[in-house]
């Protein structure tokens, strides 16, 4: 068992709202049997939970947009149905006119319909302009006629669509008098409110098993001459008038704003929290599990006392903290931009778009790899579903794909950085976060021994140099061409452009971590521990990407040895606080749902008890079959084989 | 659809034995519904397949050890039961006396019993000396009494043990007159041959769901005063005589030889074949999928025409070929050592052990990461189980853990390399594969332009320099200490020691690939293509591990730019042959079992058709529940909420 232990009191999680009943103790929300359920059972449980939650929220007077929802989502670990209903509401709120909002939002919030969001198609994902669903305006009936012209145009993947939704927002190419006006959103009813049967012209169903998300009925949707009234096109920014005149108001980019907000909001719930859970499970297990001996004649050592295990897990712990703080940074950026947008100022939208893209890509990719490391670091038991790690992993890996494929997002960030780099070099104004791009000078890292590499100034400067150089050399290179060659040149630089975007995000993350530690209003002891984590995050990044720091001689081989030494020294230092540092994430046992990660450390007993609940231990009919294959009784003739 | 295409005729797969009936077309072996089945259904199907296969083998006169089994295993993709039965047979063949072999092998090969192999415990995996199960010799009855003294001593994970096996080889600490003689193997019956019920003193069951291997009943086993006769200890190398005298013959290391043989045999079936499958699926999909435009006004481009997609997939393709060839190298090493062992010469065993460990670690780790890249490179559709990629991934990741945890294996390789490095420096004889360790000299890579980096001599030399330096600096460092400090020093070097071991294996893989291409007896055109792949594998490795090549200045920053340029150029060259290069792996559509990877490229139609078969599309009872949550009929009162 784990010893009684010190607590690190740093507030990382939202405070549970006052007089908030326990969601976790409610049997309807139990995740106890989750690992044993089929896709269908998971879906049914998720629907039950969603309905139960709505009842509770109604009783308590909570709203979908209130502060409680974040806490609830954490408590149920996202394992409820109708989450796309929230995206349905959000897209109408952002893209709908006041009249549309007045009509649809009350229906949705009172659950008189179940909404979904139908954007992705079988043949098109991130490249929205390529969507093939059509919406043709019929002036005679004042309706849009929606169609799925071919198989690849079928909507595919939308959550809550396979079995639940009654309505959805369909993104389709708008045609008026044979002319295409690009992709627009339309509210379409797909199932009857009377008997939930599919509406005329609608084909829909479930897309089948996925790597995770068994609780969600990701669906497909085909439309055959489905007519919706003219009023069903969301028309806050674009409108088709009765005579077929197309009117646009404001920036078309605002159509993608729903995606930007989703992209930012998923980072905390779908990425950082799972990463923190994985760290908690793996680190707690690593102080219970013993293997082999560090010294002859001694007891077997806890595996977290091995340098190799520390080097696997502790950088992931530091990453979890780094990403927690960069998420705050992104939220602030978002709030600032959103205030401007509400004042009809769209100037800061490109910066928000570029950075939310790049950070989404970096955070999801590093966190996915971190959870994989945590899983593998727990050996065979990590591979058991009962550890909780396989489900965390198979879920977080999806975050690299959904809401924008990571490589494409990084290239969007890179395009923005190149533009800023050129502007900055030309003395034009650029956002404060990228002014550093103008200031790269050749030079050498001034640190003279391994201790100096524990100075945030030294390593932040190294990251800045590396990021600026990565961006600048791309901006100076082949990209400055014109005509068709320009596109070939861009394609031939994309591997390095994506690296440059990642370098920028990594730099900002290190810088933000260092600044956050500096400002920490907490006990000196906590600040010191946070400083260690910040150092570890920074030096691990240099150690793991040594090439880019060594490339132009900014860091020398001898300095890289000092960095390595400091980095490895830090592992042993942070090892001492590793358990309190994961305790500080404040997950309950129920929320972790892991036989390896519970607070009390009763790993083996719990694995054994949980395994008893597996349905495979309640199946007997196969035994007859096996029996028949063996030579039963004293006979020497095996029934089947001989 | 894919165009008709050229064929690359390189023989990579075992030729189908003459007059061999199609395993794949046999309905019992169908994997068509695999993605929709529960753990229990998968297990039952696997048992049915195993029994059906035995019948077929009996009819055809094939044996377990015959050449056909490799082909069969590939055809059924490992999705059959009773595979541990083969390990049971192998361990008795290797560790049993002639008398034991004469008694047990016929029973096993005639399937009069179902065997398993019970080594791993809840509390101990790779560190075998720590196993806690006990076997106490009772001189009065001439029996061993086996016990599971505590929860952590329970056998946990053995395949075929949860529900199927009747017998198993239990590894336990042998005690005679209170003295412990270490871990030894004992044959123990666990289930009745009459009615398959558990034998007295046996508790056993299924350990529940895992990330994959639903077809296998990995199990647990507790022993309570289970008695087996003295003859049941496998005693080719160690024996307990009737009077309790313990006699050892030969090396104790031979006890681990079963593991070494398993480790080598899994590389091809469980790692390289799945990697080749993942490459086939992802590359075929990437020439069907189109996204965005490379040039304005043109058709959307195939995603494999984007440099970033090439950079994801083509290095994995090169890796699949590199590992195919290194597997041949390992097989040869194994055959050479095995010939010696049969002549009672154990001298080459350490080399085999060290290299099988290191290559197992490198091949499984790189292949796991490669399959993950293939999955993510297919975007959302790669995440669908129907792509086949999730099951390939969740299965291959286990190979990093089973048969020896990778980090521990790398450290065993490192220990051997350090020893050899010191011996070589002292002028003592070392195996030919490591003589290069004596010959590190400071120096610089002589290549002057990017084309020179396409010379195998240049890059092989660079890898050799890097590997030798990585090993040597560890050998020269803190490790030369004595007493307790020696163990601390070792622990503090393990991160870098593991890197050194990987560097050695990477070097040998590059060298072996280059030599194989050189010797290829095939058309010149094929040799040229293989040379491109070899170049790509080598330069990708330098590009991705730039730090170690730059560190001591062997490669300069300017040279690294040349390497990067050559590497990126190669992507566009190999792109042209990418489809034929995966066709050459020669997988049938049934064997790939992927909606994305079929030969005809009908991706979208197949995804749609396969989704129809999902049980989630046949469930209706939840609809009533959803209906009740909505405002049905014209009433304005929602039944549940308001």
TrEMBL record, chains A, B:
Domain Acyl-CoA oxidase C-alpha1 span(s) in chain numbering: 256-418
Compartments (UniProt record): Peroxisome
GO cellular component: peroxisome
Cofactor dependency: FAD
InterPro entries per the UniProt record, alphabetical: ACOX_C_alpha1 (IPR055060), Acyl-CoA_ox_N (IPR029320), Acyl-CoA_Oxase/DH_mid-dom_sf (IPR046373), Acyl-CoA_oxidase (IPR012258), Acyl-CoA_oxidase_C (IPR002655), AcylCo_DH-like_C (IPR036250), AcylCoA_DH/ox_N_sf (IPR037069), AcylCoA_DH/oxidase_NM_dom_sf (IPR009100)
Location of the active site: 403 (proton acceptor)
Main localization category: other
Entry-linked Pfam families: ACOX, ACOX_C_alpha1, Acyl-CoA_ox_N
Entry keyword annotation includes Ribosomal protein: no
Record carries keyword Flavoprotein: yes
Name of protein: Acyl-coenzyme A oxidase
């Amino acid at each position: 068992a784990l010893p009684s232990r010190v607590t690190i009191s740093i507030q990382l999680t939202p405070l549970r709202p006052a007089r908030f009943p326990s969601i976790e103790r409610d049997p309807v929300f139990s995740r106890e049997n989750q690992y044993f359920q089929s896709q269908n059972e998971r879906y049914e449980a998720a629907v039950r939970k969603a309905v139960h939650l709505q009842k509770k929220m109604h009783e308590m007077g909570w709203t979908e947009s209130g502060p409680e929802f974040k806490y609830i989502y954490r408590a149920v670990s996202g394992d409820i149905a109708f989450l796309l209903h929230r995206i349905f509401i959000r897209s109408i709120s952002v893209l709908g006119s006041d009249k549309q909002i007045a009509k649809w939002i009350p229906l949705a919030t009172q659950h008189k319909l179940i909404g979904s969001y139908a954007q992705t198609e079988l043949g098109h994902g991130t490249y929205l302009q390529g969507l093939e669903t059509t919406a043709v305006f019929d002036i005679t009936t004042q309706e849009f006629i929606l169609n799925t012209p071919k198989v690849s145009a079928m909507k595919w993947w939308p959550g809550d669509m396979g079995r639940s939704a009654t309505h959805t927002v369909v993104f389709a190419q708008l045609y008026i008098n044979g002319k295409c006006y690009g992709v627009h959103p339309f509210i379409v009813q797909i199932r009857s409110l009377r008997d939930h049967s599919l509406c005329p012209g609608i084909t829909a169903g479930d897309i089948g098993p996925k790597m995770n998300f068994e609780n969600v009925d990701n669906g497909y949707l085909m439309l055959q001459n489905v007519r919706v009234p003219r009023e069903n096109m969301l028309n806050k920014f674009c409108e088709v008038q009765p005579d077929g005149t197309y009117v646009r108001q404001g920036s078309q980019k605002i159509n993608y704003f729903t995606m930007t907000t989703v992209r930012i909001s998923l980072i905390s719930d779908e990425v950082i929290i799972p990463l923190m859970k994985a760290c908690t499970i793996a680190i707690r297990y690593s102080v219970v599990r013993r293997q082999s001996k560090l010294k002859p004649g001694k007891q077997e050592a806890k595996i977290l006392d091995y340098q190799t295990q520390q080097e696997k897990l502790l950088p992931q712990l530091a990453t979890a903290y780094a990403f927690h703080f960069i998420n705050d940074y992104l939220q602030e950026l978002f709030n600032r931009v959103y205030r401007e947008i509400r004042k009809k100022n769209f100037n800061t939208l490109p910066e928000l778009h570029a950075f939310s893209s790049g950070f989404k890509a970096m955070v999801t990719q590093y966190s996915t790899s971190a959870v994989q490391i945590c899983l593998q670091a727990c050996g065979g038991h990590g591979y058991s579903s009962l550890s909780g790690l396989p489900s965390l992993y198979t879920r977080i890996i999806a975050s690299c794909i959904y809401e924008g494929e990571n490589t494409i997002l990084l290239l969007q960030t890179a395009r923005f950085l190149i533009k800023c780099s050129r502007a900055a070099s030309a003395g034009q104004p650029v956002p404060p976060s990228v002014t550093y791009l103008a200031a790269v000078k050749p030079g050498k890292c001034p640190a003279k021994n391994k201790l100096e590499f524990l100075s945030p100034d030294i390593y932040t400067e190294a990251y800045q140099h590396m990021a600026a150089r990565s961006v600048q050399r791309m901006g100076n290179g082949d990209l400055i061409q014109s005509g068709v060659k320009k596109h070939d040149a861009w394609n031939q630089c994309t591997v390095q452009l994506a690296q440059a975007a990642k370098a920028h995000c990594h730099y900002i993350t290190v810088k933000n971590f260092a600044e956050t530690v500096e400002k920490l209003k907490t006990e000196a002891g906590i600040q010191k521990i946070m400083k260690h984590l910040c150092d570890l995050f920074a030096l691990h990044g240099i150690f793991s990407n040594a090439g880019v720091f060594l490339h132009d001689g900014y860091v020398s081989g001898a300095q890289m040895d000092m960095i390595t030494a400091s980095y490895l020294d830090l592992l042993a230092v942070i090892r001492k606080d590793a358990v309190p540092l994961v305790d500080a994430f404040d997950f309950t046992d129920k929320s972790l749902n892991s036989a390896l990660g519970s607070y009390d450390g009763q790993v083996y007993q719990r694995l054994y008890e949980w395994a008893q609940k597996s349905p495979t231990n309640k199946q007997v009919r196969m035994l007859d079959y096996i029996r028949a294959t063996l030579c039963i009784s004293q006979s020497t003739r095996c029934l089947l084989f001989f």
